[in-house]
Predict the 3D structure of the following.
Amino acid sequence: MDGRVILHMDMNAFFASVEQQANPELRGKPIAVVGSGARSVITTASYEARRLGVKTGMAIWEARRCCPQLTLVVGDNRKYTSTSRRIMEMMGEYTPALEVFSIDEAFLDVTHSLNLFGSAERIACLIKARILHTFGLTCSIGIAPNKLLAKMASDMKKPDGLTVIQPGEITRTMERLPVAELCGIGRSMERNLLLMGIRTCGELGRCDEERLTRRFGIVGKRLKEMGQGIDDSPVIPQEEQEEVKSVGHSMTLARDILQRQDILKFLLQLSEMVGRRARRYGVSGRTVHLYVRFADFYSSVGRQETLPGYISRSEDIYRAAVAILDTLELPQAVRLLGVRLTNLRHQGEQLPLFEDERRRSRMVRAMDEVNDRFGDFTLTFGSLLTSREKGSQVISPAWRPQGIRNVDVR
Amino acid sequence: MQRHQTREQIRVAVIFGANGRIQPVWFEWRRRKHTVTATTYRYEGKQGDSRLLHFTVTDEGGLFELTYNTHDQTWQLRGIEVE
């Protein structure tokens, strides 16, 4: 293959496969991984369950209707993040150009590794064999001249696939492929393209660029290129990625709440999670965002406040979040709360001028040291002592194995 | 199968392999010795600055999660799934 050689690795039904590997009783059976909360939906389903119609995001009752023999397993996020971290480390041995795309997907630019390992196919086989040997898990790998095509190729054969798209095969491959197969084309875009009479990538690639630009603006040019299988985007290793622009946490509550006191408890917990992460990575921010989703699931409100100075202490974030809360009308009970710190700068706390402030800073530092040593929330605010579940319960799509995006999950 | 979560300090016999790999061989729980028939999964975690090694193991009748705290060198039984 001339030019760039990109691999896309996609773990097969990752969470469900890990659970099936850990528990031999579950192997070969339809299982679904769910969260621990009462409102949980299907996080992922095994291939056996998928064949019977169980899909990610389904309500549990819905999944059971498709598949009455479905076994539900409460997910163990630490198991998945730990496994993902080790898989990504393994892949980093084949090229430093490794872009972790999500907990179970990564791009590798192996263009400059071919001399060492022979061929892209050999690298793919080595990766697949090592993952299978170490964890008993399978993955699908796509090999192509760019990220767009490599991702498409990895989707073509699942589970345990290896698909190569050679440069000379691109036009033929794209010709009859539905546009929805392209990464970045969602349902809404698919509908819009259908209204224009475009169903396949071949049709998209041949479409007049002006027509696409009239309809979709600057995205039009990109869409045409996607239809032609063109993608110049580089594989960006984590250390070269843009600096993180925000630090945030949100949580879906176990039950809807309306009482201010209850809301404040969760805000304090979220502020501590945001503050801890900001302080750990030496960032502070000037803008605090509060996001509230209501009991009906569909309505929500979000507001932000920019402060005169940079903050990273949990109590300062909390105070700003409460100030925002007090400007909001809550027409119904709260289902989800989120707190985010933006407008970041990479500098820790400034040395406070006054003794009272200095004492507060020392206290925060002391709390952080205890929690670094014994685990988050070991030492925390008195009003949080009665809270049963503390800390991040879900793996965000932005989770990465290292750096500020690496959130310890429970 | 019923799954229970617990936090019980237990005694575990292990083989420390030449490659640094730890292999639980048997463990004592409720005054009974359970012989490990297979280690089905292993992963690492952290609790503060302690490194935790988690092992999912089977005996003749159940599935157990054993956790080794490398900092204080203790073993805990964290999960049980038995008929």
In short: The longest strand of chain A covers residues 246-257. The longest helix of chain A spans residues 260-280.
